[in-house]
Amino acid sequence: MAYIDFISTIHNKTKRDYLKRVNEYPKHEAAQIAKKFGKDYWDGDRKVGYGGFKYDGRWKSVAEKLAKHYNLKPGQKVLDIGCGKGFLLYDLTQVVPGLEIFGIDISKYAIENSKEEIKNNLQVADANNLPFEDSSFDLIISITTLHNLHCFNLEKALKEVMRVGKDKQYIVVESYRNEEEKANLLYWQLTCESFFSPEEWDWWFKHCNYTGDHSFIYFE
After folding, report:
1. Can you tell me the distance from the alpha carbon of 13 to that of 150, in angstroms, rounded to the nearest whole number?
2. What is the CA 43 to chain-centroid distance, rounded?
3. Residue 89 in contact with residue 83, Cβ under 8 Å?
4. Domain residue extents for the chain
5. Closest Cα partner for 214 from 176, 169, 156, 175?
6. Per residue, what are the HEC states of 131-187?
7. Are 90 and 119 in contact (CB under 8 A)?
8. Sign of the C-alpha dihedral computed for residues 174, 61, 132 and 41 taken in this order
């Protein structure tokens, strides 16, 4: 298991006003709306989600890094758990033509409004009960998704990642290294259920026999 950061350059491009986020709209109401993972979350007001989740090519650099690091080849199968509208998967198909991609997300709205070119490869499903056979995928990725699960489902999901994957997995979750980052995470997040330090995440990975790669997103 290795720590590999493919994501922070994208994450750090967004400037965040944490106090404004927590004060401009009742946080509990924003979370209730966001956790429905419907139109409001993806394409509604920024106060309750992404504020418009549109394809802009920003994930191509991540796709290129993933393809190079994991030596992806045409004909191999990749699964994205929590794929949203499938933008990263689409970019992977552009970087590695002939790659077989699959995506699952809990959000029916995201799947219905996903990238048209790959929509048939995506489906609504739970991360803790993946609808795939054992050892089905050459690479499994999950970007900023698994921290949205409660502990009992997080354990199931990590074990599902290992079950349906072969030997390559990459997970990104939100975390914090100090009290300031912890407060910022609590101020900013809308859907997170598992709030863990890197040391605690490492414990979870070992507890669930997760042997793939990982990285963390911090709210500095």
Report:
1. 29
2. 17
3. yes
4. 8-217
5. 169
6. CCCCCCECEEEEECCHHHCCHHHHHHHHHHHHHHECCCEEEEEECCCCHHHHHHHHH
7. no
8. positive
Radius of gyration of the chain (CA): 17
Task: Say how far apart CA 89 and CA 102 lie, in whole Å.
Answer: 8
DSSP class of residue 206 equals H
Distance CA(99)–CA(217), nearest Å, equals 27
> What pLDDT tens digit does each residue of the chain (220 aa) get?
899 999 999 999 999 999 999 999 999 999 999 999 999 999 999 999 999 999 999 999 999 999 999 999 999 999 999 999 999 999 999 999 999 999 999 999 999 999 999 999 999 999 999 999 999 999 999 999 999 999 999 999 999 999 999 999 999 999 999 999 999 999 999 999 999 999 999 999 999 999 999 999 999 9
Superfamily of 8-217 according to CATH: Vaccinia Virus protein VP39 (3.40.50.150)
Contact between 60 and 95 under an 8 Å Cβ cutoff? The reply is: yes
Bin 2: left if φ > 0, else alpha if -120 < ψ < 50, else beta: beta
Burial 3-34 (b: 16+ CB within 10 A, else e): eeebbeeebeeeeeeeeebbeeeebeebeebb
* 113/129 Cα distance (integer angstroms): 23
